[in-house]
């Protein structure tokens, strides 16, 4: 719903509103008080009909007494006004009706449980710590799987448990991992830039989008539903519940699916280009949802998204903090050789947020008139 203009006379506003309805344009009228006079704002539900309504209003203002604008007299009935645009918010659904939000939460926990069971099985079978194992489900859902990744999996599985739990990588394994690291492979812009800053020899690059070009197109999105840490999945799913149900109350489900796919695929691809294929998590989509709601609150406040500004501020501070840690880790890595720094998918966060804001500004995702 968007405003198309103001009319200073109540009877004129009534007649113009009736005229729009005859043209198939659903609308409401809002009373507003100014310093010197009262005015009546015309709100149109369908954003695709806003420009047409503005043209009608322009014609009406030139000749408001034209007979085509005549409307039935309603002396005993007040003009239907919007007392508060926040009344446009939809009736909240029962929890059982948030099907799409619950579906993605369920899928993510299902994949997490499957991955955990595979880690436990391989840990018992191979005698390795779970942190160093690459499971079949990970190989199936990572954005890409190159030959060096398979070689790392093979090399780790060849060493006994004692060599991998004492806190030091044995010399033979270290040598093998170094050989694998020198194999041609796509490393991402981050690794290329880090290598250049450290003035190391140029590492050989390899083919990009290997598995996707083989037809495994699900990998464009599948890293989103993969989590290996309990804290990580709980954090993401709590935010998905908070944000997802607000969007599901206002936007058609097929459009939400389209939004999630766009946010996931674009943020995943950006992360792949920056850091390579080994990343995971739904956070790119979650930040995209937060950006989407922020944009709708700015662009269409009458839709009544209840997300508090303090909540968006918290998310913003969190993202800035994570980005700051990444910058600090980058500079540390330039001075300390072979230092392992936990990789945070900051690119997916940032790009997901940008995608969410851009899509949130589109009338395509506007709340449907009830």
Could you describe the 3D structure shown?
- Strand 2 and strand 3 (38-44) form a beta hairpin.
- 30% of the residues are buried.
- The chain is 54% helix and 5% strand.
- It has 370 residues and is mostly helical.
- Helix 5 runs antiparallel to helix 7 (171-181) and helix 11 runs antiparallel to helix 14.
What characteristics describe this protein?
2 domains, 370 residues, Alpha-Beta Plaits, 3 strands, Rhomboid-like fold, mainly alpha
- Tell me, what is the CATH class of the largest domain? Mainly Alpha
Briefly note the CATH topology name of the largest domain: Rhomboid-like fold
Number of helices: 14
Strand content: 5-15%
How would you state the average pLDDT, rounded? 81
Task: Specify Rg, calculated over alpha carbons.
Answer: 28 Å
CA-to-CA gap between the ends? 11 Å
- The helix content, as a percent range, equals 40-55%
Encode the helix/strand succession as letters: EHEEHHHHHHHHHHHHH
Question: Secondary structure elements and their pairing?
Answer:
Elements (H helix, E strand, L loop, with lengths): L1 E6 L2 H13 L4 E7 L4 E7 L5 H13 L36 H28 L9 H6 L5 H11 L3 H5 L5 H11 L7 H9 L12 H4 L16 H19 L4 H23 L7 H17 L9 H27 L10 H15 L10
Antiparallel strand pairs: 1-3, 2-3
